[in-house]
Amino acid sequence: MLETYLPIITVSLGAVVIILIILSAVLFSKIGKLQKRVDTFTFGIEDADPEKVIKLIQKDIRDLETANILKENKIKELETTLNFTIRKVGFYRYNAFLNKDAGRGGELSFSIAFLDGFDNGFVLTSIYTSQTSVCYAKPIKNKKSNLMLSEEEELAIERAIHGGE
């Protein structure tokens, strides 16, 4: 009686073997992909303990956070320092003498203001005539000077404060 079913059993077992071979190939493919992901996670270290890898990654993250805090503090320090450097410059060029008989200086006279982030600094003025040239500076504190400012010097200061407008 077994002989009657032998061809059916053989075909069935053959089909099961083929299905198992296909499943094995699929599983080996998935294992290969999983192994690549594990290697990426464990940085390619053989027999790496996942717990150790996680601790290593956490340490790296803490180190990066510490480095980031140090860099942020350095940036704040530099920003504070930069407020005390010359950051604003305003330039105004003009004719010091409009009367042609008095020795017109062309547009060679100028006032230039140099200010820091707190609007402190100085204004430098040069007055040019055909016979001579005079240059002088006046201190500026909070947009003002303790010395009398000319209209041109005030314009140079305003241009420095407002970005040359």
Keywords:
165 residues; 18% strand; four-stranded antiparallel sheet; 3 helices; transmembrane; single chain; alpha+beta
Please tell me about this protein's structure:
Keywords: Membrane, Transmembrane, Transmembrane helix. Helices cover 51% and strands 18% of the residues. It is an alpha+beta fold. Among the domains are: 46-84; 88-162, no CATH class. The chain has a 4-stranded antiparallel β-sheet. A hairpin with a 4-residue loop joins β3 (121-128) and β4 (133-140). 11% of the residues are buried.
SSE inventory with pairings:
Elements: H1 2-41, H2 50-82, E1 88-94, E2 109-115, E3 121-128, E4 133-140, H3 151-161
Antiparallel strand pairs: 1-2, 2-3, 3-4
Structural class: alpha+beta
| Quaternary organisation | single chain
Radius of gyration: 41 Å
Strand content: 15-25%
Number of helices: 3
Helix content: 40-55%
Ends: how far apart?
Answer: 108 Å
The geometry reads as rod-shaped
- Number of beta strands: 4
Largest sheet entry: 4 strands, antiparallel
Pfam families: DUF4446 (PF14584)
Transmembrane segments: 6-28
InterPro entries: DUF4446 (IPR027981)
Keywords: Membrane, Transmembrane, Transmembrane helix
How do you describe this structure in short?
With 165 residues, the protein is an alpha+beta fold.
